[in-house]
Structure formats: C-alpha cells, structure tokens
C-alpha cells in the first residue's frame, strides 16, 4: 500500500484534505514534473518514463524541464526521493490531522490508495528498484514509514507492537497483490480485511 500518492489526500468527507491539479504552463513547479512522472509510472512502468512523454503529459516543451532539473538522471533521483519522503510525510500528516481515530485513519489511507492508483505506482517503483539503487532506497524508506504509521495506529487501537506490525505488513502487501479474484468486491476488500485483522477472538 502505498504510497504514493500527490502530497495530500482527499478524505471521505471530501473536505478534510484537498489535492490540487498541477498547473499547465511553462512555470510548472518541480513537484508538477514529479507528479507527471508518477502518472507515467502508474500507466506504463519505467519504460514509459521518458522526457518527451513527460512534457506531453504537462503540455509544455521539453526545454522547460531543464528549468528544474540538470538532466534526466537528476530527475529520476528526485522522483525516487519524492516517493519516499515528501509525499509520504505529507500523506501521513494529512491522515493524522483528519481524524483522531486510529482505525479511521487506516480506512482513509485505503480510500486514498484506491483513488490515486497508488498500488500501481508501488508495483512500478518496486520493479524500478531492481535496477536502480536510488529507487531501492526509496522503496525501503517508503515501506519503513508506512509500516511505522500503520503499526502506531494499530497499537493505539489496543494491539501489542508485535501484533500491530504483523497486521501492518499484511495491509501493505494487500496493496501489492495481483491476485485475480473477480468474484470479490475490490472496492470494499481493504475495509473487509481490516475488519478481520482488528477483530478480537472470542474469549472461551
């Protein structure tokens, strides 16, 4: 589950956190280029991540890219860092501000992941990590932050740290699953599994 993700998340109320669409002008911010790169990764993986498609995604010339990045290698390094740091930190902060209820925070995370297509991005990042140490470090950092967030939520809900970490791992791997199960309701699967994970066994 991930991550990824523009830096804020629309919550269930629709107003708790807002996500702004990137501008379409030669004065684009670096973040707009990074968001566009993530969009390409979601749709086509690393093979789709090239300068011309990036510029076409933003409807600008390729020359404007160099206002923000030395070269494409520099861009890729910043894209990996964005996945692991700024975006995740902003997302976690938004979730924590949205509600004091730790389980509600996890549910909001699941909604955000589905809305953004974050699972596809996480899978693409993991494929990239096989060949680029920057992407590998980013994935490891991203997972560390998300595991910690989920574990803290579950601990606050009454689980031991060990119980919380196991459940957090399960929730993250759910977001990376490619299991073909058309008979299941994918829209509610995360919440259904969360309900199972937080249920306590009846006392004999």
TrEMBL record:
<dbReference type="InterPro" id="IPR001647">
    <property type="entry name" value="HTH_TetR"/>
</dbReference>
<dbReference type="Pfam" id="PF00440">
    <property type="entry name" value="TetR_N"/>
</dbReference>
<feature type="region of interest" description="Disordered">
    <location>
        <begin position="1"/>
        <end position="23"/>
    </location>
</feature>
<dbReference type="GO" id="GO:0003700">
    <property type="term" value="F:DNA-binding transcription factor activity"/>
</dbReference>
<feature type="domain" description="HTH tetR-type">
    <location>
        <begin position="34"/>
        <end position="70"/>
    </location>
</feature>
<dbReference type="GO" id="GO:0000976">
    <property type="term" value="F:transcription cis-regulatory region binding"/>
</dbReference>
<keyword id="KW-0238">DNA-binding</keyword>
<protein>
    <submittedName>
        <fullName>Transcriptional regulator, TetR family</fullName>
    </submittedName>
</protein>
<dbReference type="InterPro" id="IPR050109">
    <property type="entry name" value="HTH-type_TetR-like_transc_reg"/>
</dbReference>
<dbReference type="InterPro" id="IPR009057">
    <property type="entry name" value="Homeodomain-like_sf"/>
</dbReference>
